[in-house]
Amino acid sequence: MHKQPDLSTKRCFNHANRESVARCPDCARFFCRECVNDHNGRLLCADCLLEMSVSKEKQKPGILHMSLPPLRIGLGLLAAWLAFYLLATGLLTIPSTIHDGAIWHEQTTR
Ligand SMILES: [Zn+2]
Ligand SMILES: [Zn+2]
Fold first, then answer.
1. What are the CA-CA distances from residue 55 to residues 62, 65, 70, 105 (Å)?
2. CA–CA distance, 37 with 4 (Å, rounded to integer)
3. Cα separation of 46 and 12, whole Å?
4. How many angstroms separate the alpha carbon of residue 60 from the centre of ligand 1?
5. Please, which pLDDT band fits residue 73 given cuts at 50, 70 and 90?
6. What interhelical angle do 68-99 and 102-109 show, nearest 10?
7. Smallest-distance ligand from the CA of 31
8. Domain boundaries defined on the chain
9. From ligand 1's centre to the CA of 13, what distance in Å?
10. 23-71, pLDDT tens digit by residue?
11. For residue 42, with 0-12 CB atoms within 10 Å meaning exposed, 13-18 middle and 19 or more buried, which class applies?
12. CA of 56 to the centre of ligand 2 (A)
């Protein structure tokens, strides 16, 4: 014999004088029609709905953390390339500044 959960005898968690119409699947508490909200086909209470939106916000940095290792490798490569680039341009610019430098001209004109 399958017995339907006795919702009619249960009272809303927020409204003691109201009969509950739904049970929140997350916190398993009973709520009246006013206290539950449809969320993707599930009737959730306001608390769980809020908690869900908060946990969704918390998940965002989690996704970022997952993509951090390849990002770190990319940054490492970028730093290595930048160091090489600075070294290469540094080696190129140093002789040219000596060539066009005022010290060289001062020595020749003197
Ligand atoms: Zn709930
Ligand atoms: Zn209620």
1. 11, 16, 25, 69
2. 22
3. 12
4. 22
5. confident
6. 10
7. 2
8. 1-66
9. 10
10. 999 999 999 999 999 988 889 999 999 998 888 777 666 555 555 677 7
11. middle
12. 25
Tokens 């739904």 sit on residue: 22
Neighbours of ion ligand 1 (CB under 5 A): 24, 26-27, 45, 48
d(CA 20, CA 15): 9
**CA–CA gap between residue 57 and residue 39 (Å, rounded):** 17
For residue 51, give both structure tokens. Answer: 């908690």
- DSSP assigned state of 10: S
- CA angle, residues 33, 34, 38, in degrees to nearest 5: 70
